[in-house]
């Protein structure tokens, strides 16, 4: 995986079983509650990610002793509500599940603290939480802009106030943070919710985990929550963290779109997480879903190989699944009819403005999208998804949600490392469950028969065909027409990235003009070989080549198809032939087009090109260790094609 991007092949189907990582929401809650409790708590199956590391780092700086005794298992020695360190600067990145509750807890803990994060965290509002804390004596100052981090916290003022009035329509994390902090006061305190409370399932998680640590909150529906006087957190001894229900949504949708069956384990009908109701939304879209106490399984409405079998669009209030609703937006790309997602205004104050970002990236794939203050309406493209490079906005859920689009098109995910926030090995797990569109890569020396054999194999199989060399020839032709120097690598890459190329069988167009013959001249062929040796040009053309990988399969010919462009090709073939035979073939080809040429000059040209191609620093021409060698010196085209098709029959990843 590149640091800058990850290219996902189009997937034919998806199936299998995945054990989910621990829930982020539960992990950071139990870490903080274990730290505040009396006694030591052993936490099993904790999520290990950027967000939980932020919480662990903060607890360490506050003097809480935490021991790791397994890959995902930790022992937290509680401090009984009083942190040993009363002065600290805490950097919390973009972890809202750490920043909001720590703000509330530290505001009532009696110390001097400074909380900051990345620039995006400083754009996420926290003014309502600060206002609520001030109502009960909290002394919290905004250090830059009113209503936003960074924050400075001082010991609270003495006050008899025992009621906090807090808006419920901004972030449920404000309610959760206050609830977790209130036992530190020692007196009964009530939170009165003004208006409707969004993201209620996350408050349910908070109430359930607090009860696990000995504090039972008295509630009046969703209007008020009271923490009794004398409430104290006590260690339950051990806590097993559920799998992450939000992460489950990506794989359940994958199974619903890609056939399945796809089972997620670690979360099921006994879960305390509201995002398990994402499975209900999939059922409304027509998916087949089954459940157990700690597993959920999804399938598409019918076998994915049946034509016309799709999900159908729905109209849904997503207040109960705000994070998982992002996955529904991507699933909507595979539905018949529009999908309306309502009551998602909270998306705008997350890691990015998710509403605007989701609309922008869905449109790249060809969807028609209406974006409102608190809704998205998505109409899937009637002609299928378009290949696109998806920007992720430093937001893990953007990267994971849009990975579903690989079931409809080759895809590039920019900045894929953002998934480390909650699911560091997400893309590796995705690859284990998806069956990619198969590729046959045919490589070899010039005039060895690559193009002719590859085209005939593609026709025999009914697959797509890519003459990758034409892209480099088109770049060379476009550069020549623009008067650009072949030695100007930056300019060559710019031309390659902007090619207006069209392939239709043997017909090749550049900016609408038929250039099928023009790009085959010896002058352009020589120039194309030079252009292909430029790393920046190869990078510019890489995703364009991979975008040809569409169902049911692709036959790609070119000198680095199996080594660089499609290293996971199901079958790799390397063609060769004697220099004399290749020269005769090229001579016959040129004479057939009325182009004068001499055998002697062609021998010299091919020999020089072989030397140049074998010595280039990027993707030198050579047989890969996993490629089948086919010497065509004494073979007819029909015989060579038959041999490749025989190899296809025995290739394990085809069929």
Please, could you describe this protein's structure?
- By secondary structure, the chain is α/β, with parallel strands linked by helices.
- The chain folds into three domains: 208 residues, UDP-n-acetylglucosamine1-carboxyvinyl-transferase, Chain (Alpha-beta prism), CATH 3.65.10; 217 residues, Alpha-beta prism (UDP-n-acetylglucosamine1-carboxyvinyl-transferase, Chain), CATH 3.65.10; 212 residues, P-loop containing nucleotide triphosphate hydrolases (Rossmann fold, 3-Layer(aba) Sandwich).
- 35% of the residues lie in helices and 22% in strands.
- The chain contains 21 helices and 34 strands.
- The protein has a five-stranded mixed β-sheet.
- Strand 10, helix 5 and strand 11 form a beta-alpha-beta unit.
- The longest helix has 17 residues.
- The protein is elongated.
Text of the CATH class of the largest domain: Alpha Beta
Computed over alpha carbons, the radius of gyration is 30 Å
- The share of residues in helices is 25-40%
- CATH fold label of the largest domain: UDP-n-acetylglucosamine1-carboxyvinyl-transferase, Chain
């Amino acid at each position: 995986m590149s640091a800058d991007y990850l290219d996902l092949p189009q997937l034919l189907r998806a199936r299998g079983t995945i054990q989910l990582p621990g829930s982020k929401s539960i992990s950071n809650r139990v870490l903080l509650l274990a730290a505040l409790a009396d006694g030591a708590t052993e936490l099993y199956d904790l999520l290990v990610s950027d967000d939980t590391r932020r919480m662990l780092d903060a607890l360490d700086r506050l003097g809480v002793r935490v021991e790791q005794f397994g890959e995902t298992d930790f022992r937290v020695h509680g401090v009984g509500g009083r942190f040993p360190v009363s002065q600290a600067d805490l950097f919390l990145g973009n972890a809202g599940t750490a920043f909001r509750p720590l703000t509330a807890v530290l505001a009532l803990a009696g110390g001097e603290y400074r909380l900051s994060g990345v620039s995006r965290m400083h754009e996420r509002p926290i003014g309502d939480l600060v206002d609520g804390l001030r109502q009960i004596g909290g002394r919290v100052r905004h250090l830059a802009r009113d209503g936003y981090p960074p924050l400075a916290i001082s010991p609270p003022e003495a006050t008899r106030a025992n009621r906090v009035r807090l808006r419920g329509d901004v972030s449920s994390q404000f309610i959760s943070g206050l609830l977790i902090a209130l036992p530190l006061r020692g007196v009964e305190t009530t939170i009165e919710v003004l208006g409707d409370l969004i993201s209620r399932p996350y408050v349910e998680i908070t109430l359930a985990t607090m009860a696990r640590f000995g504090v039972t909150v008295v509630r009046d529906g969703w209007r008020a929550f009271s923490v009794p006087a004398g409430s104290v957190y006590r260690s339950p001894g051990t806590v097993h963290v559920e799998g992450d229900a939000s992460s489950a949504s990506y794989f359940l949708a994958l199974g619903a779109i890609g056939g399945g069956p796809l089972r997620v384990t670690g979360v099921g009908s006994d879960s305390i997480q509201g995002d398990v109701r994402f499975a209900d939304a999939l059922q409304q879209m027509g998916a087949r879903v089954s459940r157990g106490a700690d597993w959920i399984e999804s399938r598409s409405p019918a076998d994915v190989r049946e034509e016309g079998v799709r999900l159908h669009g729905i109209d849904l209030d997503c207040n109960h699944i705000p994070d998982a609703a992002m996955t529904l937006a991507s699933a909507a790309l595979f539905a018949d009819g529009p999908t309306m997602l309502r009551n998602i205004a909270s998306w705008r104050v997350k890691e990015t403005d998710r509403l605007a970002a989701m609309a922008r990236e869905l449109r790249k794939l060809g969807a028609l999208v209406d974006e409102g203050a608190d809704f998205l309406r998505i109409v899937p493209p009637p002609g299928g998804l378009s290949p696109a490079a998806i920007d992720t906005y430093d937001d893990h859920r953007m990267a994971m949600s849009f990975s579903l689009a690989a079931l409809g098109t080759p895809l590039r995910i920019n900045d894929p490392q953002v998934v480390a926030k909650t699911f560091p090995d997400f893309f590796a797990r995705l690859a284990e469950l998806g069956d990619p569109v198969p590729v046959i890569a045919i490589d070899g020396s010039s005039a060895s028969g690559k193009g002719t054999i590859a085209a005939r194999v593609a026709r025999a199989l009914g697959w797509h065909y890519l003459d990758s060399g034409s892209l480099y020839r088109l770049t060379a032709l476009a550069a020549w027409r623009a008067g650009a120097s072949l030695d100007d690598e930056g300019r060559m890459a710019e031309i390659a990235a902007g090619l207006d190329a069209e392939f239709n069988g043997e017909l090749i167009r550049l900016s609408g003009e038929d250039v099928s013959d023009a790009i085959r001249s010896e002058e352009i062929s020589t120039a194309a070989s030079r252009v292909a040796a430029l790393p920046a040009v190869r990078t510019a053309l890489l995703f364009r080549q991979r975008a040809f990988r569409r169902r049911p399969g692709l036959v790609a010919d070119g000198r680095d198809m199996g080594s660089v462009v499609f290293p996971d090709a199901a079958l790799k073939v390397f063609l060769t032939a004697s220099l004399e035979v290749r020269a005769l073939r090229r001579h016959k080809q040129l004479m057939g087009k009325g182009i004068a040429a001499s055998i002697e000059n062609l021998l010299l040209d091919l020999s020089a090109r072989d030397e140049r191609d074998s010595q280039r620093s990027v993707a030198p021409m050579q047989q890969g260790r996993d490629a089948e060698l086919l010497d065509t010196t004494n073979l007819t085209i029909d015989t060579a094609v038959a041999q490749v098709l025989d190899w296809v029959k025995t290739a394990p990843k085809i069929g």
